[in-house]
């Protein structure tokens, strides 16, 4: 009686939206001013980022997208559950939107939360074609807040996406300005001794791997809601209010470590799905992920939202303040992260030289032995100093044991781990998976090739799933980079060891040298994209098409036709 | 209340309508650029410099390559020249056109032709080579040349970069040529022919696109080749001060 | 219908009250929240339902000195607490609750009772037996009888880590 009335009341407030929401988006050439540089880019309705699309759970939306570019475009609704031909991936969902054409997307909104949208054509997304989606739930939110802000991050680069891809292909370290220098050699010598340092450099040189390969693409300006650090996007609040911040990482390549000095953050949602609240001091947001946090500033003062890139090569900054113009201190960037041998442990066929004693089996996240199972005797060259574990920092089961990437909170407090994420209200019954599919994340940094199971998209067959099955995906990261894997159209149930409380995501980060499992209830017929969301990794081939066979009958028939004429090879 | 319920029902029906439309939709095959091999290109001047020798010789020198292609196959044009400024003549002018394919994780094989058209007699060679990254970060380019007349020679290029900072870079290069037969006409004797060693300190001024440098280069001829040079009245060893820029675009 | 209106009004009230309280009285607490009482002394019963992660209602009105019998029902899927106190008291209690999670006493949707009653060695246990609060597993229902002492900044709150911050609290407004 009571809840029904409340729902009714809310519906009455927005009668038009319950029926069908009609929205218009134009895709335009825009100017993007980061404060550091001004750059031609692509945006929506004349701006980058585009507008915040506000939908209501249960409504049917019609979105008219007009392409004002002189090239093909598309919009992918990242994280939305919808019919596959509305998913907006050219070549997989639909042919794309031609210049001058208006394409009307139409789909029911069956979920609530924070999501985003972006072009899935070429490098339009890194060039600025992205925006936020906020979906209000049918019922009440299971938390309380007085106001909310979208905090959408990106890593705007002065170079166009095409140029970046070409430069990376020409010189994979083109944008890496955190490489080890002569100076670092001597500081390592004074810390670890000459021979240890020489052995360490020789071990990495032997692999032809760089400890500094944390960020492929440096030299960007971090933007929050389109504003650079100097332009300082500011969200206003009254002291004592609770504020919901909807963080969205729309970067092409950059993971951000986010903190608000002076404020605790309570994570209440990840990738649009509510999670059991976790109080944290800092969290890492992978590319394409979203996290909703609630903060409760009590004092009449400004607070800095500080988002340092994972490799510490850049940052985004914004402010929460009681009044426009108020500012708080902006922290210094911390030292750049360095990979360790543990991060390399996923690499097969690597010439480990004198490291043959290393037991790779012990290195995945389910290991209880970890580094203790490793034969250290021949590895004095390893830089123990930079091992997070060795320093007594916190460990995170989603990083290789001894990884140099394990994040720690700047104030020594709690840093969010995937292991902390538990579904607030599980979407699916927990059940045994019907089968497991192993996906090795592979690549060659020196050639800037990226692939899955050693095969680039151009050479790959689609992954075929059966409607109704529950597939367990096993990601084995054999590269030294972090890959945010994004399956379109169906949820990724991340295995954090919490069984029925495992969180439901759309993007799952897989750290170097780790194995991560996720399960998917195959409940969406059609064909879908499945890829690393780092723009230049996806473009280089870390991408797959997934075909869901079966389901509603007519879809099944189409799949058979395609399978027969071999059009999908 | 009943009014609200009917609105919900309408939207529910509408959503069913949408999903029916989906199933009728043709599934397409991916013919986008994403499904095609990624084609890239690049142009790099590893050296583009002015050289001034210890006996007042002035040279304009370049060493550049341009490529076009995919991960699996690239076409590469390599060009090297030394222009004697005072005499207005090319001391060396080599152009290679090769096809390049990956043969291991870090190495490519190359095959093609090389045309030498300096002042004096021209030469055409078949080229077979490997290029890539050796352990400990040595950039290696090793080539075997066979001339139309059957003269064979081999050339090894190695480069190592030392990062003083991420912008100040010292690069050390070694280029050595060995001939397996004599080609007296162009002054090449059998055995170790010549070496060129260089040290260049560069600063990345604009990305990695424009990096001015200064440096020293040492050129030396050996054995029979040195004898041939001496007989011609030339020197066998030169020290150069160089100033120039590494360029990539 | 009346109840619904009350909820909406309470919600609106709670927002402004919360902002006002924190803004105006920031730091000036010290008032005790009241004292336990017997059910027979209560003139009124208020049912508080727990969901994941909020209460219904989210605000109540009491008279200074009034004794109220709370019937607290956990209708969610997670363990929740109902605890009457000032924001400072809640904050202090959250540290204890964090310990209960770290020691596996509170495990998402259930309580580990063995662990709860275990002697911690220093005479303490992780029993949750303060009279101003109850800790409920999903489906459980318990009573708290409380005599509110005075006007003050009093909230009922769930101090399971994160829940309070996410908004699982309700204002006690004095008439």
TrEMBL record, chain A:
Keyword terms: Copper, Metal-binding, Oxidoreductase, Signal
This protein's record includes keyword Signal: yes
GO molecular function, one term: copper ion binding
PROSITE patterns given in the database record: MULTICOPPER_OXIDASE1, MULTICOPPER_OXIDASE2
Domain Plastocyanin-like: 34-138, 221-318, 431-549
InterPro entries per the UniProt record, alphabetical: Cu-oxidase-like_N, Cu-oxidase_2nd, Cu-oxidase_C, Cu-oxidase_fam, Cu-R_CopA, Cu_oxidase_CS, Cu_oxidase_Cu_BS, Cupredoxin
One Pfam family recorded for the sequence: Cu-oxidase
GO cellular component: periplasmic space
Signal peptide: 1-20
PANTHER family attached to this UniProt entry: FI03373P-RELATED, MULTI-COPPER OXIDASE
Name of the protein described by the UniProt record: Copper oxidase
Source organism (scientific name): Marinobacter profundi
UniProtKB/TrEMBL annotation, chain B:
GO MF assignments: copper ion binding
InterPro entries named among the record's database cross-references: Cu-R_B_prcur (IPR007939)
UniProtKB keywords: Signal
A Pfam family per the record: CopB
UniProt name for this protein: Copper resistance protein CopB
A single GO cellular-component term on record: cell outer membrane
Signal peptide positions on this chain: 1-24
Coiled-coil stretches: none
BP GO annotations: intracellular copper ion homeostasis
Organism: Marinobacter profundi
Domain of life: Bacteria
UniProtKB/TrEMBL annotation, chain C:
Organism of this sequence: Marinobacter profundi
InterPro entries per UniProt: Cu-binding_ET (IPR050845), Cupredoxin (IPR008972), EfeO_Cupredoxin (IPR028096)
Keywords of the record: Copper, Metal-binding, Signal
Gene3D superfamilies: Cupredoxins - blue copper proteins
GO molecular function terms attached to this record: metal ion binding
Domain EfeO-type cupredoxin-like, chain residue ranges per copy: 37-86
Keyword Membrane: no
Name by which UniProt lists this protein: Copper-binding protein
């Amino acid at each position: 009686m009571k809840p029904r009335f409340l729902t009714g009341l809310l519906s009455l407030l927005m009668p038009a939206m319950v029926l069908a929401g009609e929205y218009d988006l134009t895709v335009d050439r825009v100017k993007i001013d980061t404060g550091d540089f001004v750059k031609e880019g692509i945006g929506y309705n004349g701006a980058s980022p585009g507008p915040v699309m506000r939908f209501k759970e249960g409504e049917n939306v019609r979105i008219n997208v007009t392409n004002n570019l002189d090239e093909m475009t598309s919009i992918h609704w990242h994280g939305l559950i919808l019919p596959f031909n509305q998913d907006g991936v050219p070549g997989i969902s639909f042919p794309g939107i031609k210049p001058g054409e208006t394409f009307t997307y139409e789909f029911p909104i069956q979920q609530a939360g924070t999501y985003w949208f972006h072009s899935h054509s070429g490098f339009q997304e890194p060039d600025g074609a992205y925006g936020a989606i906020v979906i209000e739930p049918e019922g009440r939110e299971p938390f309380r807040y007085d106001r909310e802000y979208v905090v959408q991050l990106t890593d705007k680069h002065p170079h166009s996406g095409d140029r970046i891809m070409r430069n990376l292909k020409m010189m994979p370290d083109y944008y890496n300005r955190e490489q080890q220098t002569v100076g670092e050699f001597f500081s390592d010598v004074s810390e670890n001794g000459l021979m240890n340092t020489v052995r360490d450099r020789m071990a990495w040189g032997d692999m032809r791997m760089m400890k500094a390969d944390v960020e492929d693409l440096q030299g960007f300006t971090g933007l929050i809601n389109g504003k650079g650090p100097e332009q300082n996007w500011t969200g206003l609040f009254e002291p004592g209010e609770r504020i919901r911040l909807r963080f969205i990482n729309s970067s092409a390549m950059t993971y951000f470590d986010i903190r608000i000095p002076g404020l605790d953050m309570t994570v209440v949602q990840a990738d649009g799905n509510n999670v059991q609240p976790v109080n944290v001091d800092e969290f890492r947001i992978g590319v394409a992920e979203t996290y909703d946090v609630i903060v409760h500033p009590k004092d009449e003062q400004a607070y800095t939202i500080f988002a340092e890139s994972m490799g510490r090569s850049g940052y985004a900054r914004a402010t929460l303040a009681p009044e426009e113009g108020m500012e708080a201190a902006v922290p210094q960037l911390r030292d750049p992260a360095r990979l360790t041998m543990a991060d390399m442990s996923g690499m097969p066929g690597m010439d480990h030289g004198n490291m043959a004693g290393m037991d790779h089996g012990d290195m995945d996240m389910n290991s209880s032995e970890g580094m203790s199972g490793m034969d250290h005797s021949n590895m004095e060259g390893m830089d123990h100093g930079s091992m997070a574990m060795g320093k007594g920092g916190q460990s995170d089961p989603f990083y290789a044991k001894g990884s140099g990437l394990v994040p720690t909170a700047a104030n020594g407090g709690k840093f969010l781990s995937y292991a902390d994420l538990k579904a607030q209200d599980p979407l699916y019954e927990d059940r045994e998976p019907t089968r497991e599919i192993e996906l090795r994340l592979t690549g060659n940094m020196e050639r800037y090739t990226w692939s899955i199971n050693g095969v680039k998209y151009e050479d790959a067959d689609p992954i075929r799933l059966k409607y109704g099955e529950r597939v367990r995906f096993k990601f084995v990261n054999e590269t030294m980079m972090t890959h945010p894997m994004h399956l379109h159209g169906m949820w990724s149930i991340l295995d954090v060891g919490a069984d029925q409380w495992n969180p439901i995501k759309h993007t799952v980060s897989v750290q170097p040298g780790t194995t991560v499992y996720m399960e998917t209830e195959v409940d969406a017929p059609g064909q879908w994209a499945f890829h690393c969301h780092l723009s230049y990794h996806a473009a280089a081939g870390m991408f797959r098409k997934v075909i869901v066979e079966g389901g509603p009958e007519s879809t099944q028939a189409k799949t058979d036709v395609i399978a027969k004429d071999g059009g999908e090879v | 209340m009943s009014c609200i319920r009917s609105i919900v029902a309408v939207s529910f029906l509408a959503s069913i309508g949408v999903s029916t439309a989906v199933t009728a939709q043709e599934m397409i095959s991916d013919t986008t650029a994403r499904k095609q091999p990624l084609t890239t290109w690049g142009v790099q001047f590893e050296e583009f410099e002015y050289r001034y020798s210890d006996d007042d010789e002035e040279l304009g020198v370049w060493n550049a390559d341009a490529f076009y292609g995919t991960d699996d196959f690239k076409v590469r044009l390599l060009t090297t020249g030394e222009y004697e400024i005072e005499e207005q003549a090319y001391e060396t002018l080599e152009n290679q056109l090769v096809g390049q394919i990956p043969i291991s994780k870090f190495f490519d094989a190359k095959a093609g032709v090389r045309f030498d058209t300096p002042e004096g007699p021209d030469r055409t060679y078949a080229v077979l080579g490997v290029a890539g990254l050796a352990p400990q970060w040595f950039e290696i380019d090793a080539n075997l040349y066979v001339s139309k007349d059957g003269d064979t020679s081999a050339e090894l290029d190695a480069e190592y970069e030392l990062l003083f900072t991420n912008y100040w870079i010292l690069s050390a290069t070694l280029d050595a040529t060995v001939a397996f037969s004599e080609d007296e006409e162009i002054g090449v004797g059998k055995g170790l022919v010549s070496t060129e060693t260089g040290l260049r300190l560069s600063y990345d001024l604009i990305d990695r696109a424009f990096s001015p440098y200064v440096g020293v280069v040492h050129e030396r001829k050996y054995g029979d080749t040195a004898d041939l040079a001496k007989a011609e009245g030339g020197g066998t060893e030169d020290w150069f001060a160089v100033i120039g820029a590494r360029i990539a675009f | 219908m009346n109840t619904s209106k009350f909820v909406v009004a309470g919600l609106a009230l709670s927002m402004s009250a919360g902002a006002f309280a924190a803004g105006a009285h920031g730091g000036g607490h010290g008032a005790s929240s009241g004292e336990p009482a017997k059910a027979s002394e209560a003139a009124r019963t208020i049912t508080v339902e727990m969901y994941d992660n909020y209460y219904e209602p989210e605000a109540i009105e009491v008279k200074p000195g009034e004794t109220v019998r709370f019937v607290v029902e956990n209708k969610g899927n997670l363990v929740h607490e109902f605890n009457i106190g000032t924001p400072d008291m809640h904050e202090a209690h959250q540290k204890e609750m964090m310990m209960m999670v770290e020691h596996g006493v509170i495990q998402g949707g259930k309580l580990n009772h063995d662990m709860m009653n275990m002697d911690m060695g220093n005479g303490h246990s992780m029993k949750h037996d303060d009279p101003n609060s109850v800790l409920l597993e999903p489906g459980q229902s318990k009573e708290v009888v409380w005599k509110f002492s005075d006007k003050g900044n009093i909230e009922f709150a769930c101090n399971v880590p994160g829940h309070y911050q996410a908004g699982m609290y309700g204002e006690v407004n004095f008439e």
